[in-house]
Amino acid sequence: MSSPVIVIAQLEAKPEYAEQFRAALEPLIAATLQEAGCQRYQLHQDLDNPHSWMLYEVWESEAALTTHQGQPHFTEFVAKAEPWFASSTIRRYQPLDA
């Protein structure tokens, strides 16, 4: 059995594109939540920076995450939003048995 993969995606838009960036996230999130293997895909906004968001993602496996990254709704979002990014940091984690 494969292990779940947790993704923390920190996304910051250039201030002049923040509204478009946020609006473009909505259909991405809706489509992603319908994907097999997606257990959670939740957007959070930074309390101190309104141009910054964090996506908390839980995938049932690395394969499910890889499939997601090839989906048209994901690749189209990345292509559309790329000029709007000020920065992004993507980190992947695996749960540890305590």
UniProtKB/TrEMBL annotation:
Domain ABM: 5-93
Species the sequence originates in: Aeromonas jandaei
Oxidoreductase recorded as keyword: yes
UniProt key word Oxidoreductase: yes
GO molecular function: monooxygenase activity
Keywords: Monooxygenase, Oxidoreductase
Gene3D superfamilies: 3.30.70.100
Pfam families: ABM
InterPro entries in the cross-refs: ABM_dom (IPR007138), AI-2_Isomerase_LsrG (IPR050744), Dimeric_a/b-barrel (IPR011008)
Name of the protein in its database record: Antibiotic biosynthesis monooxygenase
